[in-house]
Structures are given as structure tokens and as C-alpha cells.
Amino acid sequence: xxxxxxxxxxxxxxxxxxxxxxxxxxxxxxxxxxxxxxxxxxxxxxxxxxxxxxxxxxxxxxxxxxxxxxxxxxxxxxxxxxxxxxxxxxxxxxxxxxxxxxxxxxxxxxxxxxxxxxxxxxxxxxxxxxxxxxxxxxxxxxxxxxxxxxxxxxxxxxxxxxxxxxxxxxxxxxxxxxxxxxxxxxxxxxxxxxxxxxxxxxxxxxxxxxxxxxxxxxxxxxxxxxxxxxxxxxxxxxxxxxxxxxxxxxxxxxxxxxxxxxxxxxxxxxxxxxxxxxxxxxxxxxxxxxxxxxxxxxxxxxxxxxxxxxxxxxxxxxxxxxxxxxxxxxxxxxxxxxxxxxxxxxxxxxxxxxxxxxxxxxxxxxxxxxxxxxxxxxxxxxxxxxxxxxxxxxxxxxxxxxxxxxxxxxxxxxxxxxxxxxxxxxxxxxxxxxxxxxxxxxxxxxxxxxxxxxxxxxxxxxxxxxxxxxxxxxxxxxxxxxxxxxxxxxxxxxxxxxxxxxxxxxxxxxxxxxxxxxxxxxxxxxxxxxxxxxxxxxxxxxxxxxxxxxxxxxxxxxxxxxxxxxxxxxxxxxxxxxxxxxxxxxxxxxxxxxx
Length: 595
Description:
By secondary structure, this protein is an alpha+beta fold.
């Protein structure tokens, strides 16, 4: 009877933690994907060639599409769309990639540009797979300088799509015959008959016939194999390809009348371009979600392995689980704290995007960019730790960590290279309307390192210190070199900003948890996450009077005490990630302890 009561308590704690991580609508938003991707159809298959893995990802995309009542509803529901990425990434990185391109970048762009006026059934029914062609060989992060042109021909009433030089070839999209017939939305400069360049717009462009062969005027060349998701990356060019008038994706940011008259509600060509590729913002949320799903999956495997695998104990002749060693479980508990914070930062960011109004759109887009960079970089760190803690077994693709780790590199670059979007965010935080929180009035000596509000204040202090440092550099720099002298502390500001927001989201979840034990655990997770960050910046905080010398000396012991508290709860904390038993049993490492 006592065992049954304990089991019921464990289940209620697990349910409360899952609710904290995924929200009250887990059953509606996440459970359908969790259930689908737990089936044997999506289990890892050994011995496939890269081409076979690519074809398998497309076959699985069709299974995903069959499971949807209405694909267009998915595209317009950002929470469900992001959730798809969270659960697809761990089982098939290639599927996560092609699904993101088809549903978000392709279908999403069509729906955002007078989509109701088009018949999209061939795409929503996957008779044709959609892809997105923006980046060019010579223009990655300088996408606003794209050279592909779409010239309006008043005689035919259509457009001529052309790649003017090799550097303008569309770079890396999935445009081969793999998966079946494909159609793209292509970013190109709209040139009217008077020679005027109105900026970059999207054009709906069939790439292949019903057998998947490139159409006349379309050149597709497969690129070398990458270490990331097994996708059919290609270089794609156009040789005076004729498109109908309807190919232009129009909306208020730009319309072209049949007589060639151009109108726009936006005066800046750059802003028109950003409006055209607006789905990139949703894509950042999807990339963050993908990374989080693979990270939680890797942690679940690594923690289970640490309990299943036995090694020499600290007393001669004894054998203990790997997890019994402080040197083994401390980095995993740190990884758990980071993953909880990252997951909850993502939840709060998605919520802000869904509920934002036009007046705050720029601020929320900056938040999405910051979160994407922080989450995908943290995913790399956590999965690397998980791989190492699993030893040689962590190298086997069948064990669900190594392949996902290298595939995560794609999320760091996709939908805006992390460093580039952070540099942009840094400039906006310094020069925009962002103001760091002022320092508190209570002396540091009157505050306690066990107080979560004090810990949050220390994160705000760190953010303010780096803001002041960057502003000082900006003002003191010489013209022509000012930003180069400013960018290093400015990027530290962005990192401090992300840490504070992630910790705040984690603390909010802890305070709102409906179960006492879950609330207790989440507070400890928050404490561990923040203490690590405070320790890393304790010198600045001490110099600024935000910490006392005694508090700095006590930081290691206070952190160690939190590790003591959390050590026994690692399985509970990872169980809340919701990785299904069927998925776990597909990995030899979680069932045998050895292969």
C-alpha cells in the first residue's frame, strides 16, 4: 500500500513538472506528435545510405501529412507547428528539416501572401513538395543583396526569372528529385519594364515535372554530403525561366498591377524584403523547438544510462551506478537546469509572439532571435555533455545522441546565423528603447543566496554591467572602428539578457506549479541555473557591490548544497520530458547498458 501511494505521488509530481514544461494544453498540442513519433514507423533504421535516409525522411513527411486533419491549420498555429519540430527532431533530423521547409517556409509564405486566393491542395495534399529558395552562393547573411531577378514582361503579362551569375545560384535548398515533384517560393528582385528595382519578393516557381525531373530553364546540382541532417541539398539556378503573373506573392507590402504599376505600403525596399520573408521569424521559433526536443531526448537517454550502467564504487570491491559519482551526475544536473530554463524561455517567447500586437512586433522579433541563438547554442553544449557521459555508446547513431548533435549544427545556421542575428540584437539593445533594470536599494549583505528574487536581481545586475560597458565603448570609440570596439561587450549583453529571461521564465514556472514537490524541485533547478551564472560573473558583481566577499566565498558551497538536493530527483526531472517508453526502447543504450 505504501509503495502504491509513493508511486501515485511520483506520478503526480511528474504530471506537474510536465505541465510546467509544456503548458496546460499538452494533450492537444504535444501529445498527438509524441504519440505519432513513438510508433515503430519512426524508429531508427540501421545501415541506410545517406540517399536512403533522405528518401525515408520524405516518406515519413507523407505520414505526418496524413495525420493532419488540415495542413493549412497547422501552418497558421505557431504552437502546434513548433511542437511538431520538438518531437520530429529526435527521431529523424531529416524529417524535421523537410517538414520545416514545406510547412513553415513554403506553405506559410503562400498563406501569408493572399493565400486564400490560391488553390493550395496540391501542396497541402503533398502531391508536390514545397521548398524555399532565398540564400544564394554569394549571399548568405547578406541576403538583402540577392542578385536573382524576376523581370516583369508586359507583353506576356508574366515574369522572367533569371540567375545572372554563379554567385546568384540558390544555395543549399532541397531541390533534387528525392521525395517527388517539387515547387519553390523563390526570392528574387522584382524588376518592372521601366528597369526599376522594387526590392526582393517571392515567386511561386515549379521546379520539376511529375517524375521529379528539372523543368526547362531550371538547373539543379547536388551538393556534397553534410554532417547535419540527411537532406538533398542543392545549388539551383534559373535561365530566363518564364513564370505567369500569378507567380508573384503579393500582399500590402508590395503589389504589381497587370499594367506594370507597382504600389506598396512600405517605402523601404529592405523592409519589403523582410516582410516577404516574414516566415523566417516563425522559422527561428521552429529551430529553437527542434533543438529543445533533441536536447531533452539526449538528456533522458544520458540520465537513464547513468542509472543503468554500473562501475567501480568508492569502496574496494563495490559496484555502483555511474550516477552515484558526483563527477558524473553534476554535469548532468547542470544540463537539466539549462534545459528546463531553455524550454521555458521558448514557451514564453512563443506565447509573446502569438499574443503580440503590431506595436511590439519589432521587440518580439528581437526576442525570438535572441532566444533562437541562446537555445540552439545551449543545445550543442548539453548534447555534447550527454554524448561524453555515455562514453563510446554515445557515438552510435542508434542511441539517439550523436546524430542529433551534429544535426543541431544546422539549427545554429538556419533561419539566420546565430552570431549575425545576435550582433543585430546587440545593436538594437544598445541603440533602441531597451533600458536595463536599475540596481536595487537593499545592500547585498542583507540578502540571501537562497532567495530567488536576489538571484534574479544579480542576473539583472550582470545585464546592466555589460550594457554600461558596451555603451562606454561605443561612446569612446573612434569613427570607423567604434562598433568593432563595442561588439564584444555588446554580445555579452545579449547573453546576459537571454540568461535573465530564461531564469525568469523558470522561476515563474516554479511559482505557478500546482504541486508542492514539483514547486520545490523547480525552485532548486532555478537556483542551480542562476548560481552557475552568478559564479561566472562574481568578479564584476563583487566589484560593483552587488555581492559581498562572504557571498562570493560561499557560492561553491551553496551550489554544492543544491546538487545534493537534486541528485535523487534526476529521473523524475527527465521523466517530465515525456519521451515515450517505445522511443526509449528503440535505443540499445537505455535497455542493456551496453551494445
